[in-house]
Amino acid sequence: MGSTNFGFIIFSIGTLTNITFLVISIFNYILTRNNAVLLHPSSGIWTVLLGIIALECSDAPEGSKRRLFVVDVPTKYYPLVLVAFFALLSGGGFPLAYLISVGIGYAYGYGKLDRLKLGVSRRQSLETSLLRKFTMRQGWIVGPSGDDWEMSNSNGQQTWQPTIVQPPAIGMTNSSAETLSSPTISFQGSGQSLGTTRRHNPDRSAMLEAAERRAATVSSQDEEIGN
Known about the structure:
Layout (H helix, E strand, L loop, with lengths): L2 H30 L13 H12 L7 E4 L2 E4 L3 H12 L6 H14 L10 H8 L4 H4 L15 E2 L5 E2 L14 H4 L7 E3 L4 E3 L10 H22 L1
Antiparallel strand pairs: 1-2, 3-4, 5-6
Helix pairs in contact: 1-2, 1-4, 2-3, 2-4
């Protein structure tokens, strides 16, 4: 997916969740005139994380399951079970923001919000302007060359997969530096897994420019010594 696209996913899930939560809260207040509905919060990392989990689980193989403590639940419904679990922890309160986040994650996973995704031209524009300093840092992952954020597995089917942010080691060769491993997401009880190892060919123009500058500096210093 790349660092820019993943950052945009986090930002969009959080923004859409809070806007939807605000609209529903105001609508409920208009209907009930109960000030208490305006005091319910929408905050915390789970407001975003549950949406990301739902996006991942929406692409799970049929029949796959994930374990929650001692219970195996169908992977596609795993985020909803988490929301129900949080509701029990809160004494039966209804975690509206969490449920909205899960819904937005499912909408992304099933392609209902594809129009909101960053196209390759918009992403490259951001990476050459606003995010330029970040793209030159170790650990930055370049996104796909096309508009499709997803990657294909061995069967040619599209799967969503998070990527490990892993800076290249010092002295690493180009061939090894271009390979970043991604975890294989396994679903217990299914015998199936999501994700394959992917290769990235990051844009090294910034690194080449830095190397040329260093070479020019060394050359000028040699000329001064020779004179």
